[in-house]
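Q: Hi! First time asking for a complex rather than a single chain. Here are the components, and I think there are two in total. Is that enough to go on?
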Amino acid sequence: MNRLRSLRWRIPIYVLYSIPSIVYLTIFFYIPIMMIIVYSFWQGGPLYKIVRVFTLENYVRFFTDELSRNVLIWTNLLALLIFGIVIIIAYPIAYFLARMMKGETGLKIILLILIPLEMNYLIRIFAWRNILGESGLINSTLLSLGVINEPLTMLFHSIYAIVIVAIHNDLPYAIFPLYITLKSIPRSLYEAAMDLGSNRLSVFFRITLPLSLPGVAIAFLFIYIPTVGEFAIPALVGGKTYLLGNLITRGFLDIGNWPFASAATMSILVLTLIAMFVVFKLTGMRWLYR
Amino acid sequence: MRLISTSSPRRSSGLSRIILVSIIVIALILVTVLAYSLTTLTRPPQKLVAFVWEDFTVPEVVNPLREKYPQLTLENSIFTSQQEMLAKLKGGFKADVVSPCIDYLPTLIDLNLLQPIDPSRLKNWDKLFKSLRDYPEIWRDGKLYMIPTAFGIQAGITYRKDKISEIQNWMDIFTLKERRTLILKDPRIGIAMGAWALGYEYPWNLTRGDLERVKSFYREHRDAILKFYESDIEGRELLASGDAWILAGSGPAQAYWLRSEGIDAEFTLPEGRGIGWLCGLSILKTSNNLEAAYTYIDYFISEEPQLYYANEWLYGPSNAEAFKKVSPEKIIESGMVSPEVLSQVLPLIEPENIDEWIEIWEEIVAG
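A: Yes, that's all I need. Here is the structure of the assembled complex.
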């Protein structure tokens, strides 16, 4: 009895608190991930041919096969482009809301920006189909104003459409963390810098920008990583554009080569973790990976 | 001394509560899992799980079934593509009946997922078209594995007549200057259409070299392709919106639906080449209610549901009596064909080198 009591006292309180979440994560997250890892090391082929024999072939194929290699490079470039554009748009907005607006006005506007995220993700994408289509809002307006004679085909079912929709979708995810970091920079720092003779440009590049980089890193986490695995936007508005998310979805559902699709999934997971590590290190967010 | 004696019980009681809550949470999870397992094990004897296309679950057909057989408890599980169906069945999904099409039937038989069907247990079996009852692909080693429920033509072209005056041959859809052609994202139909454009007569025996040629052809004409579409509904929506003008890989029903929406659309089989489809119902090895499975299948090949699908979904009915009751105007307007046409067009089958087809098609789609 005494032994049992002493054992009970040795269990830290936070371990006990975490039991429900550990159980939940184990069942719904870690076990599926482990299954994907196991699948990725089995031999496979189209139409659900799976041989339970260990192989590294799927990983080798993913990184050496021309198709998957090109898709990998192309998807990463596109994700970086989208992230870059989103940051360029989001930063001035967040800066304006955090530094220029008085009181809680900035936060209220942020909440308004976040409201569209409550709408279903697929419905938002479908709405863009109507805006960008041949007889959509943009083409109809431009045609009626006489700006163009023919509908702009580049707007629908193209890579440009992916970029437009992804930017719209990702913008709140960049504005919000940037707003938080910009808002948390003490005003005294600016005043001290100004007292020491800095001009506004110098203050921005030597104080505001470096101190807001954690917000950029969080935006990277929210935008770049989901974009690399994105499959709904390319499928619905991207026309024949083929990205990594589509390669994996097709691998699982259409082609039925689960081992290869699993290897692709794990490779992306590792690559995005590395990218995240690098970005967090560069932006000084060491505490996140310590 | 007093302080120690008062604080210990409090900490102890707090800790006990946490342990108790954790135990309750774990117990709840276990009870839920156990309850689900028990429900599965102790389901009523007349319960039938149907793993089917969405059209098998519409109330117009399912409600009369429930009224006719009140002892039958039907549970529908829907799949949206045959690949998805195969993936789920391979993943251990259990059901009594499944609704495959002729192209995936051999794979299901090879994987030992189906059990033979005894047609003498179906009252409506003799009412089916003889050509469908004798269709070679539904039999293997003298055993019947699928009861045909519907058939038709696919791999034709639906196009907007207000945008394109005429399509005469398969090459026409690839030589459009505008990026307006939709190609069905199915390796067999996609490659077959490319092969027809290149002049091949019979695509199912294409060699690796031929497939590479089709791939090069697609790459050369990629500018004409707007996208590789997934489903009839998606294709029709894109044609209706005006984003696309040509739907390659469709059946005649698409043009009918578009015309009913006021869009000037036409269906054609360039050079008379198309592919026939035949779908039906099969009984899974995992079925533990054969009686209900036969009742279900027999109902779907009976006259009423067959006539409903012919009139509302424009499927060719496998029941000959139902086919006779479809109005001639409807048959002409919808492009419905008789089952004899299935022998005039190519059957949708799985080529021997399907792995190469899938590999090449993936490269075509990815560009």
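A: Residues 155 and 161 of chain A are 6 Å apart (CA to CA). Let me know if you'd like any chain examined more closely.
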